[in-house]
Structures are given as C-alpha cells and as structure tokens.
Write a structure and sequence with these properties.
- This protein is mainly alpha-helical and about 130 residues long.
- The protein folds into two domains: about 45 residues; about 70 residues.
- The longest helix is centred in the C-terminal third of the chain and has 34 residues.
- The protein starts with a helix and ends with a helix.
C-alpha cells in the first residue's frame, strides 16, 4: 500500500506545482523538489528491510562480502545521480542534468574496475 501513497503524493505534488507554474515558477520548482525529497526519504526508509535481508545473504557468502559493498555503492550512486539530474531537468537545466548522469556513470564504471580485475584474475587462475 506504500506505492499507492507515494503515487498519490507525487500526483498531488505535480498538480499543486502546475498551479504555481504560470504565476510563480520558482514556487513550482521548490514544491517539486520538496515532493522529490519526501518520496526519496520514503525510499530510504524502506532500505532497512533490504539491509536485513542482505545481511542474511552475506552470511552465506564466505569471503565475497566486498562484492555486496560494491553493489550497494553502485546502486546508491545511480539513485543519487538520477534524483539530482531529475531535479535539474525540472528546473530547465538539462545540460547540468546530463553532466550529473555522465559523472554517475563514470563513477560506477571506475568503482567496478576492481571487481572486473578480480574476475579476470580468477579466470586466469582457473585457466592457467
């Protein structure tokens, strides 16, 4: 039922922001950003359950817990970059949003290089 609440909050926020868009566009932007932050906090509060389940998974992964850390960092980077880029797009700064998205993609790529190196080392160890 959380999804219905979040959906209704988003639609109500957009409808309210549309009322301000023609007369006071800055208020519409602030309202949109506030609704985004509110929905984002709901999303973050749901992570507690996810973390509990991941800790259960982590107990079954002997010695490979670093990979879960990389996974969570990558997901976090993508969420934060998408959130910030969406706000910039709503404000009319598409170029800034594009740069944020590029930075996020490069950050995930750079973060994943050690994992790729470990996979290649394991393949070489098995093959050689």
């Amino acid at each position: 039922m959380e999804i219905i609440k979040i959906g209704m909050l988003g639609v109500a926020g957009v409808m309210l922001a549309l009322q301000f868009k023609s007369s006071r566009p800055e208020y519409a932007l602030y309202l949109g950003a506030a609704v985004c932050l509110l929905i984002f906090t709901f999303s973050v509060s749901g992570l507690e359950t996810l973390l509990i389940r991941i800790k259960g998974l982590q107990e079954n992964l002997s010695g490979s817990t670093d990979y879960l850390g990389f996974l969570f960092k990558a997901v976090g980077i993508t969420y934060v970059c998408e959130f910030c880029a969406s706000i910039c797009k709503d404000a009319g700064y598409g170029a800034v949003a594009g740069q944020i998205e590029i930075f996020g993609k490069l950050s995930v790529l750079l973060m994943g290089l050690p994992v790729l190196a470990a996979v290649i080392e394991n393949i070489n160890a098995i093959a050689g």
